[in-house]
Amino acid sequence: MTVSGDNLAIIIKESVQKLFDISLTPVAIVCDQGTQNRRMFSLLGGTIKKPFTEICDQKLFLVYDMPHLIKSLRNNLLNGDIQIGDTIISFDDVKKTYDIDSNSSTARAMCKLTSAHLAPNAFQKMSCKLAVQVLSRSVAAAIKTCVGTKELNSSTALNTANFIED
To answer: pLDDT exceeding 70 applies to what percent of the chain?
Structure first.
């Protein structure tokens, strides 16, 4: 059974009131980016410029959980390059580095990655674990190593590595 965003907003307001009644002070509401949760945040008055609501005269921040944000970021990268200002981030750099690493006759840097990380099916796209592993510091380091050894010749590779690392 799915609870609507409208009902979630009511439940949240009532629950927060009860928490205050027993002297607990919540500071944030954290959830994934499901349709109902986005609707709830909207009904509670949350916006990009005002990512909080006020219940019982107390400010509560409205926050999407980090693993699901990383998953959404990975899924957007799978759909194509992302431009941030003048910087282009490309998932192709991750794929090319994986290919270089997979064909290495020495130790592998990306040994945890599989095809499910690089070309996930619909079910695998829902996995936060796969997204976090592919957007990890070790993957960023592998990209930088391949650029440094001149095995990876890409105008976006260092941007991609720095973005993943940061």
So the answer is: 100
